[in-house]
Amino acid sequence: MGMRKIFRKLATVEEAAAVIRESFTVEDFKVELIPLTDALGRILAEDVASPLDVPGFDRSAMDGYAVRAEDTFGADETRPVSLRLKGRVEAGHSVELEVSVGEAVEVSTGAPIPRGANAVVMVEYTMENDGAIQVFRSASPGENITSAGSDISIGEVILRRGSTITYREMGVLAALGLSQVKVYAKPKVAILSTGDELASPGSTLKNFQVYDVNSYSLFAAVREAGCIPIMMGVVGDDELKFKSSLTKALTSSDVVITSGSTSAGFGDMMYRVLEELEPGSILIHGLSVKPGKPTVIARVMGKPIFGLPGYPASAMTIFNLLVKPYLASLTRLQPPGGSVVEARFAMKLVKALGRRELMPVHVIREDGGGLVAYPILKGSGAVTSFSLADGYIDVPAHLNFLEEGEVVNVHLYSPRLKPADLVLIGSHCPAVDCAVSMLINRDPSCRVKAVNVGSTAGLNAAVRGEADLAGIHLLHSSGVYNEPYIKNKPLQLVRGYNRVQGFAFRKNVSFQGFDDLISGRLTFINRNRGSGTRVLIDMLLEDYCRRANLSFRQAAARIKGFNVECKTHSSVASAVKTGKADVGVVMEAYAAWYDLNFKPISVEEYDFAVRRDKVNKPEVKAFIETLKSDEFKVEAEARIPGVTVPEDAGEFKL
Amino acid sequence: MGMRKIFRKLATVEEAAAVIRESFTVEDFKVELIPLTDALGRILAEDVASPLDVPGFDRSAMDGYAVRAEDTFGADETRPVSLRLKGRVEAGHSVELEVSVGEAVEVSTGAPIPRGANAVVMVEYTMENDGAIQVFRSASPGENITSAGSDISIGEVILRRGSTITYREMGVLAALGLSQVKVYAKPKVAILSTGDELASPGSTLKNFQVYDVNSYSLFAAVREAGCIPIMMGVVGDDELKFKSSLTKALTSSDVVITSGSTSAGFGDMMYRVLEELEPGSILIHGLSVKPGKPTVIARVMGKPIFGLPGYPASAMTIFNLLVKPYLASLTRLQPPGGSVVEARFAMKLVKALGRRELMPVHVIREDGGGLVAYPILKGSGAVTSFSLADGYIDVPAHLNFLEEGEVVNVHLYSPRLKPADLVLIGSHCPAVDCAVSMLINRDPSCRVKAVNVGSTAGLNAAVRGEADLAGIHLLHSSGVYNEPYIKNKPLQLVRGYNRVQGFAFRKNVSFQGFDDLISGRLTFINRNRGSGTRVLIDMLLEDYCRRANLSFRQAAARIKGFNVECKTHSSVASAVKTGKADVGVVMEAYAAWYDLNFKPISVEEYDFAVRRDKVNKPEVKAFIETLKSDEFKVEAEARIPGVTVPEDAGEFKL
To answer: Is the pTM of this model over 0.90?
Structure first.
């Protein structure tokens, strides 16, 4: 199993980029002739020389009268010249008339200039009367005449190979009479996800499967890069099937992207299959960059295969770093502007020395308009850390920390991404979702980012300024909710609403209280430390211990599952529903939604912490107004069991 | 004909925008369910709440061993803990195994956690040996376990109505198992061009027609705005046909855009038809902004009709100003970033007081990276002024000039537009086209803008810095080309090449020299003053006059057509070919391409003026290198009759 050691020779990103450049030469790529109406955003594959003069004839640039300029010399407001009106020519019509001395012909904009005339007098400087016109201004030769070929002359190269076709180029091609245009063909990129645990969206999950994310995000990113994505679907950890899918992908496309199954720990299938398809095909066996270590680059049948890591955030980072620039060299598309933005780094952060790190960040617009970049500290395996990330910052190997306030370049994942206007970080609650939806309904241009990390982490984010608002429900030993936790911090507290917390258990389970847990008859499932619900559980257990004359340590040791923590109401309800545990603490809504029995413990206060200097941010004010609204009370109480919105919702408590 | 006076009540742009807002309320627009793979760039029409927990079970975040954390407490490098290896679980497979005291189960990343285990030890901190593992580090409860719902919890609103779907949102929707998504339907926009003079690209031009530009540039702009353009084609100035096309457009679309036939001078057809379709339908009868005066806005069947001016640049300016924001309110698309850029205004420019002006500009990147905006002084009727314009600056009515160096906001017509890297302004020559093509072949990322305005105007543009290079061929009375014209200017002169100029005439015409023109037997066609060719003609005629003892004035008066000027070689050749004139002066290539007889006059020198401070700009150097290349000599001499490239091409003459 020498393969396991493959990551010992990691390549740098620069080395990998050089390998790509040298191994996959971009020859003159395929060219195709397409209808002009399909050409928006495509790249011209040839110089376009005009096949004709534009205009093809001398024409009037104005509505007015075609005259001999000489006949009007000396005319002014007081001494108009009178000319005989010989007739009229409209745009698009032939002209039989000729202008001789003392004559004029009425012309519309775009009409051909009659023989003999060498100027057009604008209608504003004339008066028509009984078959004659008075001209009040002298015209100079050539005035208001667009001469043949003066706009575009025959044979003139008017558009260049390599130009992007915008609406402007579409207009110019139309002006030349071209209804078709030669552009570079879009490269075809096959996309393949690997792993027994993956199911395609739209199908039903089997036990212990998750849905395939990478096929879809890569599909979109490949299309955004101007290529044609070909979805090859999911292939399990089956060597023969993988080999046949890869072969099919290679024959039907110009480039192949796989994701997953590149980790060295389990399943070296990827390496074996590539070696079998073409010995020596593997060019890169891993990268010395985080994330992205398990990246494989190979050449089979002369075509590139990019094997990306399985985690969505890692796969997309390596796609942006190495695959996208390669695709751009094929498509000739200029990278869209504005994809790198400057931001202040939000905190001091220590990283490992000696390894380049592409650190995913999310970007927030401050009140003043500047941007602040926050590192995403959740693991790269999470879909939400992927969905939160706006881009990454590139931290060189030789650095081991980033300073707070340091100016960094954020490489945006997509030019379509915009910084959020309002950021909520804290404890998850469906009532917050409800308020945010209302806010957006009122102002659809408001971009809200909501991140669920629990009360304590939310409070810290509010102190750092990362969160505009932090939803918290933290019970203090004094019996008071939230207020004691924001004292001595630069925060204010906005009243939110109340939620009922309690024990949830399956309908066929009999549960009275802690006795049933201490006895070991039922298995508990706990919440993570730092969450508001865990604070509640620990206080309840302390109360119980005082009454039962037990130490907290003893009680905790006796409760089966007390050390098994999970992070959400959902997770607790799901564990109870599936029998993994028998009892857990959740808010009433989740017991109802999972169809579980519910034994209420207490009514807790869910409020919002906001940093003092953010109180007047317009989006924060709008959110607070929403909390105050009747509509919010009606909606939240109707939709979320156990939630009640008090009179003073939206008021400042501190 | 009261209609003619309609422009007396012009609306301001703000008034027009208010009329649009009030008359066309944006109700909840149509929603459609589309496959996820079609969703890139679309706008979510509903909040998306997760139908499931992600992950749906507790899973391993690493390759390693599932253990009871308690069993590992105290383990370190020197005192490893030994656990019995009970088996292995791979991602996507069911787990029958349970972990009891002193046991471990091997797990791959993504595999479900066996019952009893509450932590995963990474493979790096273990050693496997004979059915047992040594653990070299103690694990804490929950370590390396992603618990059910910790990423996304069931019922959590994970994407919001109004969000743009980037590859990130595509990935998130896939993670939720959704293969379809509800988005706002794209508005359908019908596009109609009017005018007898218009022909559709791909068809053959009839006499005095030009190709329809607006249908195609509007088609592209409407698509770029996220709508579905419906091409209705060209309708002539025929009231019945126009009425029927407009009715068809209204029934098949949500919005109608027409262009042309809105001018008040000729053809009030547009007004009459709108009044007939629905009395009182016309809301706006013209705008007090330049360009865009002849703009009509009407409401028929409750739908908006935007009647834009016929000139391409005017039509697109009004589209950007009024139609695009309205379409954005329908699509909910955020306007793409970077569409307004700051630039220095290049010169002092006087404008009319009292009228707001949307001044088309082109934007050049300076050596330092800053942008300079140059007004486009060619009329809005020209396709090339349209193709040259990158955007416009909005000059308020109360200003009557712009200062040189003033910082202005340029509203880019399309976010796809990029400032040019190299700008050539001067006399048109096919050999310049040839050199530029070679330059781009070598560096496809180099964006070149070439503008043909004649030698004198090019020289002025080079002095102002607007042109990086000006192609000139100006004969001085001393008999020397070009050099005398750049003396006392901040310019240097780069040697170009030679071209043969001469008289062109139809093959059935007999022409010997000026005698045939002075006699009045043949009609001449002249070039515009300021062009290099006109300078040559005037000098030749002066020579002739000295010999013939005539004054220049007398000679000019005797030559038929001497006052008929046109601006290009093409235009002269075309006039001669079609019999509008008999003789003109062109470079040899145009006589050959138009199949005309050619009588050489002189070999002229075509050189390039460059401002001293631009000599070291990389793109200027690259262009000069191209002139020096053998390839240019071979290509230019083979392709362009009468051009010879001398030994010293590309050398500095001054």
So the answer is: no
